[in-house]
Amino acid sequence: MNKAYVHGYDYRENMRLQDQASTLVELLHSDTFYPAGSRVLEAGCGVGAQTVTLAGNSPDALITSVDISGASVAEAGKKVAAAGFAHVQFAQADIFNLPFGPDAFDHIFVCFVLEHLARPAAALHTLKNHLRPGGTITVIEGDHGSAYFHPDSRAARQAIQCQVELQRRAGGNAMVGRALYPMLLSAGYGAIRVSPRMVYVDSGRPEMVEGFTKKTFTAMIEGVRESAVASGIIEPQEFEKGIRDLYRTTEPDGVFCYTFFKAIGIK
Amino acid sequence: MNKAYVHGYDYRENMRLQDQASTLVELLHSDTFYPAGSRVLEAGCGVGAQTVTLAGNSPDALITSVDISGASVAEAGKKVAAAGFAHVQFAQADIFNLPFGPDAFDHIFVCFVLEHLARPAAALHTLKNHLRPGGTITVIEGDHGSAYFHPDSRAARQAIQCQVELQRRAGGNAMVGRALYPMLLSAGYGAIRVSPRMVYVDSGRPEMVEGFTKKTFTAMIEGVRESAVASGIIEPQEFEKGIRDLYRTTEPDGVFCYTFFKAIGIK
Questions:
Q1: Residues A21-64: pLDDT tens digits?
Q2: I want to staple B17 with a disulfide (CB 3.0 to 4.6 A). Which of A166, B32, B49, B130 is the partner?
Q3: Chain B partners of A150 at a C-beta cutoff of 8 Å?
Q4: What is the rounded CA–CA span in Å between residue A100 and residue B45?
Q5: What do you get for the CA distance between the two ends of chain B, in Å?
Q6: Nearest CA in chain B to A253
């Protein structure tokens, strides 16, 4: 994968993910909690931005969090320890080659991971092997094609498209959110239920203007400036105009919309 | 206005609006009800698709429904009479020249109207003159820029864009939903609160596949076929492919998303 855009590897990105996690915790995670004693796999924990929330919401579950990056796993471990949780175990592991047996887990949790995978449906299928019959999988992903705003701006749409294109070239899919239902279906899960979580931001919600439009979404798009220009996808001045127009949506008469998708399926 | 695309004037369109109204009643209207004795203006009632719901939810309010089309007002009157409601009065009138005094109403309700107006913010400002201080305005509009789907399709997006372009040429704005907050702000309303109502459809929700994706949204886009082709916006075969691709999203692995915006402001 192209490290230039991948989330979670440098300090600024790390801080951004923390901002994102705080602003979105209620919207994305408040309805996810697991029973006492249940064995939960967090597949793709990254630097632990969601792990702390997951652990806090399910204080008596037994959580195992894995990531393909050893550095991320170490970072996630520190974060969870700092929060005082002792019911999370960590391992460095590839989703396609997990060191767990069949039916090892009662529940699986996958958040902001499929967007980075070249074969997301295959990953969901593989994960199912480690889930007991009747166990659930919960998947959360964004979708950059769900972003629209006022005032509308072609340049802003092009700047967003740079992130989509770079992620595509790295084998991922920044518009994966809308496809959770068909992916879970093709992976063989049943009773699939998708609930979109739309983030709507106008100046009557100043904490979301700061926490989401500026510090999460626009910061993420700004983060691909060098890669986008270097790869010839866009001219620097076009990209800059796009970023200015994204910030324009945070003024008193601006509006910004984005949707995350949360899906649950049963084995 | 270009009658070829305007909603509510022929039998088929009328039926479509009824389907749309039934499927969306809960999502859009269940939280709108007015106190006994309150004077409510429905500005732009069309053929009454929403009037019956409005009247049913507020059985003791005094509702006045107006539309610029006398034929539509007559149709709305029949519909409300057939439903057995006697607390709705009708008048043929232009929003910009209403036959009511200042502060004549406690509440104003505007649904699927601003999208057709060349000066929507001015209409909201004019309506405010007829609202008592402390009274509310409720506005509901769609936004065609909020439509996205799986599988994604350039042709389908182009077919949707035909409707957007025709509505623009007729002086309207099919993407007005996202702009409710700034429009109410510029019209001088306070305490504005916008709540998006996203319609998410996958094959696990068959009533929405039929009621929304097929019979409401795709039927509406199909309805502009002749106008779009005649005006040279699109080639017939491209348009047909776009319609096929919209129907493709109603298959078992398809997904369709659309968002309505509901806003409330206070004078």
A1: 567 888 999 899 999 999 999 999 999 989 999 999 999 999 99
A2: B49
A3: 178-179, 182
A4: 62
A5: 30
A6: B182
Which residues in chain A have their CB less than 8 angstroms from residue B148's CB?
A: 143, 145-146, 178
Q: Any idea what the Cα angle at residue B266 is, between residues B260 and B267, rounded to 5°?
A: 130
Question: How far apart are alpha carbons B187 and B124 in whole angstroms?
Answer: 6
The beta strands (E) that lie in chain A are given as: 39-43, 62-67, 88-92, 105-111, 131-141, 148-150, 190-202, 255-266
For residue range B47-93, list pLDDT tens digits in order.
998 999 999 999 999 999 999 999 999 999 999 999 999 999 999 99
- Say what the pLDDT of residue A1 is: 37
How many beta-carbon pairs below 8 A join chains A and B? Answer: 80
Question: Is residue B42 a contact partner of residue B54, using CB atoms and an 8 Å limit?
Answer: yes
| Strand pairing report for A105-111 and A39-43 | parallel
A141 touches B at CB < 8 Å? no
CA distance to partner chain B, nearest, from residue A233 (Å): 20
Instruction: Give me the residue from B150, B186, B194 closest to A182, CB to CB.
Output: B150
**Could you tell me where the DSSP H helices lie in B173-235?**
180-186, 206-208, 219-222, 225-230
Of A179, A195, A198, nearest to B196 by CB-CB distance is A198
Return the bridge partners of A255, or none: A150, A202
Residues 6 or more apart whose CB falls under 8 angstroms from that of A101 comprise: A130
Which contiguous run of DSSP H or E holds residue B166?
helix B154-169
CA distance A179 to chain B (A): 6
Residue pLDDT, tens place only, B200-249: 999 998 989 998 999 999 999 999 999 999 999 999 999 999 999 999 99
Closest to A13 measured CA to CA, from A21, A257, A183? A21
User: Which DSSP helix (H) or strand (E) runs through A116?
Assistant: none
Q: What are phi and psi of A52, to 5 degrees?
A: -65, -40
Alpha carbon distances (Å) from B168 to B2, B5, B118, B143? 10, 11, 9, 13
Helix (H) or strand (E) holding A207: helix A206-208
Contact A182 B143 (CB under 8 A): no
Our CA angle for B161, B11, B91, nearest 5°, is: 95
Nearest-angstrom CA–CA distance, B100 and B244: 48
- Residue position matching structure tokens 């992903």: A141
Helices B154-169 and B236-248: angle between axes, nearest 10 degrees:
120
Residues near B154 by beta carbon (within 8 Å), at least 6 away in sequence: none
